[in-house]
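Example record for the data management plan.
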Amino acid sequence: MTIRFRKSDWLALGLQELASKGPEALRVKELCAEADKTIGSFYHHFEDQAAFIDALMEHWHETFTQPVIDALDEIDDAGQRAQELSDLATKLDPSIEVGVRLLASQNARVQQAVERVDNQRIEYVTQMYAKRFDMSADEASLLAQLEYAAFVGAQHVFRDSYTIVGPNLAALLQSALEARYPD
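Corresponding structural encoding:
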């Protein structure tokens, strides 16, 4: 008996293929071959490749941004929240994040989706820093942008060793911030 391939299966496969093979792997024919499913199965869930890409970007956001923010909002202690954010961010698969950004460099709609996610992530860190260190929104925003640029850059530069380098960079940044802005 063949197990039905759900929309969520296509999206999970899309992120996996994007991470491992790049944007070219998101062609309908390649996805169907990898899934061992018919093209009709794909089109049962998505009107076309553009609709799939849009759904994939929404899935990326719903999987790697919104749940993190929701979980962090449950933590009252600002220092603990910062540590948990750092832990969660450095556990992200850099291949997925790099793949999404590579796709964004080729697709204006994906670029817009990435910008929305980037802005949401930066805004969250901005608010966290403003509250935690009792600083102006402008200063908190600059720090959040700096940290996010380091986060995204480290995923590219240290892609193969990010699980080791990322937490070390995050810890150093938090230590520097705590020294600069003591409670």
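Summary line stored alongside the record: Residues 65-180 form one domain.
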